[in-house]
Amino acid sequence: MKNFLEMEPVWTRKPRQAVVAADRVEILTEPGTDLWQRTYYGFRNDNAPVLQVKTLERYFSFTVKTRFASKTQFDQCGVAMYLDSENWFKASIEYENEEYQRLGSVVTNHGYSDWATTDIPADVKEMWYRFSRRESDYCVECSMDGADFKQMRIFHMHEGAGGILFGIYACSPKQSSFQAVFTDLEVTACRWQAHE
Predict the structure, then answer these.
(1) 3-state secondary structure 86-135
(2) Which residue from 185, 195, 76, 50 is spatially nearest to 131, judged by alpha carbons?
(3) Contacts of residue 160, Cβ cutoff 8 Å, sequence gap at least 6
(4) In the structure, what pLDDT confidence band is assigned to residue 156 with cuts at 50, 70 and 90?
(5) Do 147 and 140 form a contact (C-beta atoms < 8 A)?
(6) Helix, strand, or coil here: 6?
(7) SS3 state at 70
(8) What share of the chain has pLDDT > 70, as a percent?
């Protein structure tokens, strides 16, 4: 087991206000920040801050707890694998309104994003994520308590077979800002078992 924060993470687009400590990362999001490419909405956005480490390891899991004070539509924070502007992944809770939020993920291959979601109550303000790699295939899971993880999706990255970067992100696509806190950041042996 490794502490993600001892693996020399680096920023892609460092936010103006962020704290990286021995046991946590805090990000104050900036208005108009997001990650999205082409599909359906007719726009591209590539300016969200991402804190990542680089690895050649082909089998591992990365677990993190998120706590967030999101309050405006599309506010989001979670896990990410940002390779370049046209090849990346993110999983998070996106705030929608006072009734519900969207727990989901986006996979972007060769410049086209998808978005897979399920609705959850708006009062959920903490979530654990586990991001696992098996060569160029990946799995993301979520948990309310850090013990019982549920699969969100399995996916393939066309450019994800070699060295990759992975970590955390937070952003506010609209004119808003909120505090995102990341703790319990651990990298372990792969907990996504091989298919029998």
Answers:
(1) CEEEEEEEEECCCCEEEEEEEEEECCEECCEEEEEECCCCEEEEEEEEEC
(2) 185
(3) 81, 83, 87, 133, 136, 138
(4) very high
(5) no
(6) helix
(7) coil
(8) 98
Q: What is the DSSP string of 54-66?
A: EE--SEEEEEEEE
CA neighbor of 4 nearest in space, from 167, 175, 151, 189? 167
What pLDDT, on a 0 to 100 scale, did the predictor assign at position 192? 95
Mean pLDDT, to the nearest integer, of 138-159?
97
Encoded amino acid at 62, one letter: F
State the Cα–Cα distance between residues 110 and 90, nearest whole angstrom: 15
Of 169, 178, 164, 112, nearest to 136 (Cα)? 164
Looking up tokens 């899971």, which residue turns up?
141
Bridge partner list, 76: 94, 171
Q: What is the pLDDT of residues 57-90, one digit of tens each?
A: 999 999 999 999 999 999 999 999 999 999 999 9
pTM, 2 dp: 0.96
Three-state SS annotation for 138-188: EEEEEECCCCCCEEEEEEECCCCCCCEEEEEEEEECCCCCCEEEEEEEEEE
What is the token pair recorded at 156?
């393939």
